[in-house]
Amino acid sequence: MACYILGLSAFYHDSAAVLLRDGEIIAAAQEERFTRKRHDQDYPRRAVDYCYREAGIESKQLSHIVFYDKPLTKFERLLDTYVATAPRGWRSFAKAIPLWMREKLWTPKLIADQERWRGEVLFAEHHESHAASAFYPSPFREAAIVTMDGVGEWTTTSIAHGIDEKLDFVEELRFPHSLGLLYSAFTYYTGFKVNSGEYKVMGLAPYGEPRFASVILDHLIDLHDDGSFRLNLDYFNFHVGLTMTNERFHRLFGGPPRKPESPLTQREMDLARSIQDVTEQVVERVVRHAVSLTGVRKVCLAGGVALNCVANGKLLRNGVVDDLWIQPAAGDAGGALGAAYSVWHKMLANPRQLPGDGDDLQKGSYLGPRATAQEIREVLDEAHARYEVVSDDELTGRVAQALADGKIVGWHHGRMEFGPRALGARSILGDPRSEAMQRMMNLKIKFRESFRPFAPAVLEEDTSRYFELSKKSPYMLLVADLRAEHRVAMTEEQQALFGIDKLNVRRSSLPAITHVDYSARLQTVDGKWHRSFYDLIRAFKHLTGCPVLVNTSFNVRGEPIVQSPRDSYLCFMRTEIDLLVIENFLLVKRDQPALDGDQDWRAQYQLD
Fold first, then answer.
1. What is the pTM of this model?
2. Is the domain of 449 the same as that of 336?
């Protein structure tokens, strides 16, 4: 009889469900994709039901259910922190208690009731789940494992050593000393949303100068050579209040936090660059220490900080590690996967079965649902959409030609990605050679800040021709520099530009994917797990000589990535996307009837 293990994460942010069958990932998805509520933290009812459908089972066929952290231990931290800081932390404590009393303290019963489960509900520690999600699906038989995030139960950073199915923790840092919370403090201070805007800070950093880095190191964080550190809590409010920073922090950096949606100034750009530089220092020291402790130069990363792809790229570029594997769903969603793996390998002592070809076990992270032709047809017919159904060859040829002609394509093809990155299954695609593409996509398609960079998807065999990277990057979690021969020399006047003025300078032959510092967060595509996406890029290369496409997530600002054919059709109709592909269904915008009752959709994005 097959062993089915359901892994769950919920009640904080990015709820998700994962199903293993005899140690193989069968299905994984975030709840937000089904509810359309970004970073949905509620019980992942729809994601769980999808997992059952994908496997063709019911909950009674499960062998184990496991949750990704230990709520009682986390509640203990909440109580201890309040007692240690009372009465300052009363408002924060009073706000948290009702949710704990109503829901979080009763997690075992809630799960049992939801799944009609009569067995024991198992619990893994938060950073154990992160570490397991990083190591067990990785291609490495042995690795050093580093996890960094805001906080789990108590742990904020951990170092572990994995070999075969064994995973042992070596060192940890504990709350309130947290690199994730330090970065989130600057996310809050620069006017972005904590737990979702950190990548905006990373994208803003190249526009600034690190003039506050020494202030951060002198006043906020006491950083040691081994990467351990202590935060100066006199400048923070996250441990006692409802905000991340306090008045002393604000005085240190010359004023109050930026109001969300207000104009960005050079100060925010310099703050972003400064905290990014400090973060890279901390990450490099922690990883160097992990390598020293374990004697292993292959490293696995997970936790929210592992989504900082700039820091990840520098680990390889600076020779800190020989090889690196980062869990694609590095945040809390991936904890559901790690918890399930912990049961399979640690509790049940099952051996790991590596492919042997250097590949990982994550299946390209294409682990979500895929619609049938009948389901797609029903959605499109209900909307009175006009479409064609074409063969695979015709599809790639026509879409490649449209991209070469400067069109923007919504590409919904294959199983949905697990994790925050669109990897060619739920993507918006464009021509990277176009000078207007970045601005057009940001303002007319994504409805987001103009400074935000776009990622290139490049054929794996052509990666080294364009980028200074010799490793695979299938999950878009590494930043690499564009090779010199593809850069455009800047004039002295252009080199003297500051801040956002840098944005409109053409700096390469691929301007749509080249950030202001000549870097790009790239995805390498080999076709093993998503052949149609590989074939599309190859067809574009055949037409243009360019083996690269702009690849950004198929969504608009403030919404999750699309999941269903209906999601994709609505996003297509509400934006200036030119073509929509849903599997082998092809839709052209100019042929479509108006979307009934949807005239005011622009207002929600504060557009003219």
1. 0.94
2. no
